[in-house]
């Protein structure tokens, strides 16, 4: 079984640096790379059934758009570099969902950028990188 590295990716500058680091590591070690993108999602219990249906429809559209516009080009670029890569695209709490992906893929390491697109909220509630460093079941590399 090949070693797997999970990369938390949100297309921020920090995530692009983490991608460069993780792809270099995967190439050197002959590891597979799992590019994980998690869209924040919080359930609302007070929505009507019609609102929930509309929200589910928008959620599917967001996932499709992220797969095509965000992850597709990354996978294509990695393939051209000879790196075996796959994607995981989900909704949820980012650090918790990345931990689930790590466990499900039997990854041995996770790489994430120091800051992502949620810089203001991370100052208020704690960063994804900090949360992941505390909760991850495998070593975490945080790339500046």
Short description:
The chain has 144 residues and is α/β, with parallel strands linked by helices. It is built from 5 helices and 5 strands; from the N terminus they run βαβαβαβααβ. Helix 2 links the parallel strand 2 and strand 3.
CATH class: Alpha Beta
The third-level CATH topology is: Rossmann fold
* CATH homologous superfamily heading: HUPs
How far do the termini sit from each other?
Answer: 30 Å
How many domains is the backbone divided into? 1
Indicate the CATH architecture.
3-Layer(aba) Sandwich
Secondary structure elements and pairings:
Blueprint: E1 4-8, H1 13-29, E2 32-39, H2 49-80, E3 85-91, H3 94-105, E4 109-113, H4 119-125, H5 128-135, E5 140-143
Parallel strand pairs: 1-2, 1-4, 2-3, 4-5
Helix pairs in contact: 3-5
Could you describe the 3D structure shown?
- There is one protein chain.
- This protein has 144 residues and is an alpha/beta fold.
- It has a single domain, classed as Rossmann fold (3-Layer(aba) Sandwich).
- Helix content is 53%, strand content 20%.
- The chain has 5 helices and 5 strands.
- The chain has a 5-stranded parallel sheet, with helices on both faces.
- α3 packs across α5.
- The two termini are 30 Å apart.
- 29% of the residues are buried.
- Mean pLDDT is 86; it is low at 119-125.
Structure keywords:
5 helices, 5 strands, 144 residues, Rossmann fold
């Amino acid at each position: 079984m090949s070693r797997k590295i999970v990369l938390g990716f949100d297309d921020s500058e920090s995530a692009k640096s983490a991608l460069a680091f993780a792809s270099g590591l995967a190439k050197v070690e002959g590891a597979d790379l799992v590019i994980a993108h998690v869209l924040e999602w919080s359930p609302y219990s007070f929505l009507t059934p019609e609102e929930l249906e509309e929200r589910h429809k928008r959620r599917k559209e967001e996932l499709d758009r992220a797969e095509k516009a965000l992850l597709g080009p990354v996978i294509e670029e990695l393939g051209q570099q000879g790196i075996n890569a796959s994607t995981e695209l989900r909704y949820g709490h980012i650090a918790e969902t990345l931990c689930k992906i790590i466990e499900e893929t039997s990854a041995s390491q996770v790489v994430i950028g120091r800051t992502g697109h949620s810089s203001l909220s991370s100052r208020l509630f704690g960063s994804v990188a900090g949360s992941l460093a505390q909760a991850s079941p495998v070593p975490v590399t945080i790339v500046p």
